[in-house]
């Protein structure tokens, strides 16, 4: 809808990320004591913001399904980081989750080489954003010197800055053109409520989850987005939804359900 208002995709991404960031700016003054502690305590939200913007950029430069699924290799990086730095156990069901998720990726991405390798800039954005997200989640989980709201504000502000850089590069490459102010002003009347009602609360929820859970588990639970992205991309973007997607998608979603299912089964046995 933003693109239909006259903005090219990279600048549509800027609007999507910048308006919520501007709305969150007053919180910086309230949270100023957290910002006075230096860069290290703030890195979790900063890296998560970089990840979010790169992920959004990946959606512009490759198929939606490819960008989403490459991002959702996050559980692999997250479980390994939790194992190495947090001392979390790598249980059999976590290894199984990683295996099932990778099989799903191979099924969907397998080409003539049989390997789901990134093939363009959008694919690499999706893959690298997942790595940044896993590191950011690990830092958010372990850093207690700043408030969760501070990480959420940084998430939005840094995401907006990176989105502006991506749009600027796209403009220099003549992939996009800078929008005119009347075009931007014309979409504000409906996009401001979207930002307030949908984007700001979901951004806080996105950052709150890693403050309580292992980053690998966060990645697995977030995999529900894969189903939404795959189906909506097929409906609204005309992207392919064939046999590979029909087989690989349930596998990837199953990877996200294995650990919660095992934990629920164990709790039921102990009850």
UniProtKB/TrEMBL annotation:
<dbReference type="InterPro" id="IPR037185">
    <property type="entry name" value="EmrE-like"/>
</dbReference>
<dbReference type="Pfam" id="PF00892">
    <property type="entry name" value="EamA"/>
</dbReference>
<protein>
    <recommendedName>
        <fullName>EamA domain-containing protein</fullName>
    </recommendedName>
</protein>
<feature type="transmembrane region" description="Helical">
    <location>
        <begin position="216"/>
        <end position="237"/>
    </location>
</feature>
<keyword id="KW-1133">Transmembrane helix</keyword>
<feature type="transmembrane region" description="Helical">
    <location>
        <begin position="153"/>
        <end position="176"/>
    </location>
</feature>
<keyword id="KW-0472">Membrane</keyword>
<feature type="transmembrane region" description="Helical">
    <location>
        <begin position="12"/>
        <end position="30"/>
    </location>
</feature>
<feature type="transmembrane region" description="Helical">
    <location>
        <begin position="42"/>
        <end position="61"/>
    </location>
</feature>
<dbReference type="GO" id="GO:0016020">
    <property type="term" value="C:membrane"/>
</dbReference>
<feature type="transmembrane region" description="Helical">
    <location>
        <begin position="188"/>
        <end position="209"/>
    </location>
</feature>
<keyword id="KW-0812">Transmembrane</keyword>
<feature type="transmembrane region" description="Helical">
    <location>
        <begin position="67"/>
        <end position="86"/>
    </location>
</feature>
<feature type="transmembrane region" description="Helical">
    <location>
        <begin position="249"/>
        <end position="267"/>
    </location>
</feature>
<dbReference type="InterPro" id="IPR000620">
    <property type="entry name" value="EamA_dom"/>
</dbReference>
<feature type="transmembrane region" description="Helical">
    <location>
        <begin position="93"/>
        <end position="110"/>
    </location>
</feature>
<feature type="domain" description="EamA">
    <location>
        <begin position="11"/>
        <end position="109"/>
    </location>
</feature>
<feature type="transmembrane region" description="Helical">
    <location>
        <begin position="122"/>
        <end position="141"/>
    </location>
</feature>
């Amino acid at each position: 809808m933003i693109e239909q208002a006259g903005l090219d995709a990279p600048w549509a991404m800027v609007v999507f990320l910048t308006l919520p960031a501007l709305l969150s700016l007053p919180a910086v003054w309230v949270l100023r004591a957290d910002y006075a502690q230096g860069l290290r305590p703030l890195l979790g939200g900063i890296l998560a913001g970089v990840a979010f913007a790169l992920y959004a950029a990946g959606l512009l430069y490759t198929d939606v399904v490819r960008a989403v699924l490459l991002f959702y290799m996050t559980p692999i990086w997250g479980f390994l980081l939790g194992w190495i730095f947090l001392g979390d156990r790598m249980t059999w069901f976590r290894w199984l989750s990683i295996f099932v998720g990778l099989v799903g990726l191979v099924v969907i991405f397998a080409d003539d080489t049989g390997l789901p390798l990134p093939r363009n800039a959008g694919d690499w954005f999706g893959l690298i954003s997942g790595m940044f997200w896993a590191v950011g989640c690990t830092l958010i989980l372990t850093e207690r010197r700043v408030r969760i709201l501070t990480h959420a504000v940084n998430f939005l502000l840094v995401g907006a800055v990176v989105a502006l850089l991506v749009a600027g590069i796209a403009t220099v490459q003549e992939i996009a053109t800078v929008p005119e102010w009347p075009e931007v002003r014309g979409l504000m009347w409906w996009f401001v409520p979207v930002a307030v009602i949908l984007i700001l609360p979901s951004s806080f929820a996105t950052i709150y989850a890693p403050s309580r859970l292992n980053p690998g588990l966060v990645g697995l639970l977030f995999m529900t987005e894969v189903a939404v992205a795959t189906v909506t991309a097929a409906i609204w973007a005309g992207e392919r939804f064939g046999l590979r997607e029909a087989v690989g998608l349930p596998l990837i979603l199953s990877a996200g359900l294995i650990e919660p299912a095992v934990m629920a089964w164990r709790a039921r046995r102990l009850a």
